[in-house]
Amino acid sequence: MFAVQDEVYRYNAERWEALVRADALFTRPMLDLDEDKARAYLGLERLGLPADVAGRKVLCLASGGGQQSVAFALLGADVTVFDISPGQLKRDRSAAEHYGVGVHTVQGDMRDLSALGGASFELVWHPYSLTFVPDCRIVFGEVRKVIDEGGHYYLMCANPFFSGLTHHSWNGDGYTLTQPYTDETATSYPDQEWVYERSPSGDRIREPREYRQPLSRITNSLIREGFDLRFLSEVRGDHPGAEPGSWAHFTGVAPPWLEFVWQYRPGALGFR
Questions:
Q1: For residue 195, what pLDDT band results from cuts at 50, 70 and 90?
Q2: Distance between CA atoms of 222 and 114, rounded to whole angstroms?
Q3: Which end of the chain lies in a sparser environment, N or C, as judged by fewer CB atoms within 10 Å?
Q4: Does position 122 have pLDDT exceeding 90, yes or no?
Q5: CA-to-CA separations, 215 to 54, 150, 176, 259, in angstroms, rounded
Q6: Which three-class secondary structure state does DSSP give residue 137?
Q7: DSSP assignment of 17-70, as one string?
Q8: What pLDDT is stored for residue 4 in this prediction?
């Protein structure tokens, strides 16, 4: 079992509780969904995932805030949300009550999923959060313990080539890379303006602290855990004419995020 009460845990927990109090973008429940909107929001068919999730057990990993959880629940899935932030989980429960659906919430660190009590899932849905911990291999080992054979693991994470780079790095000609491309390089940068579309609270919110996870570490670690890559997408912006040095322009030049879909097939490649 991983000892979660370390400095990384405390930093992430305190930051996300402050983000909830500030009503930051990723803490706001989606309260205007119906089945069609939920299906479009999740984009399961685009990802090559089964579109019919009714009755399927879904784990929304580090995915609190009342967004993905209620979208899956509206489509009939049996949903568990696991998140470090009690405030985020409270919003999942409030959103579920709003729709009259059920979700199960569990508080904890994604590096230790023992609080799930041996439950297993057909789909693990893991939005942007992997870079908040130094070693992705620990997370992947935990995911393996809770996913059914043949189950799918959706992972969205920072594009490691551009980790720590933002539109503020514009130098007049391009965006300057300065961080070394090495395992667990710590990066920090101001939150993007669009995180706070509404006025934040008076709390001082720490900047995100992230750790570079090179693509080779991500892919080879998951392969060794028994996962088979089924889908990969570079997520970029599409804003023709965006002003150089703006966030919109940056996302078209340097895709900030990657999406993966993995399938757990232990033994298929001879690693297990």
A1: confident
A2: 19
A3: N
A4: yes
A5: 33, 23, 20, 12
A6: helix
A7: HHHHHTT-GGG----S--HHHHHHHHTTTTTT--S--TT-EEEEET--SSSHHH
A8: 57
Question: 57 pLDDT exceeds 70?
Answer: yes
d(CA 155, CA 105): 20
> Any idea what DSSP says for residue 128?
S
Its pTM stands at 0.93
Tokens linked to 88:
């985020």
198 pLDDT above the threshold of 80: no
SS3 134: coil
**Which fold is adopted by the domain 7-264?**
Rossmann fold (3.40.50)
Of 45, 46, 44, the residue nearest 68 (C-alpha): 44
**Rounded to the nearest 5 degrees, what angle is found at the Cα of 189, between the Cα atoms of 231 and 15?**
85
End-to-end Cα separation, the chain, in angstroms? 21
Q: Is 156 helix (H, G, I), strand (E, B) or coil?
A: strand
Domain range list for the chain: 7-264
> Do residues 210 and 164 touch, judged by C-beta distance below 8 A?
yes
Distance CA 93, CA 142 (A): 24
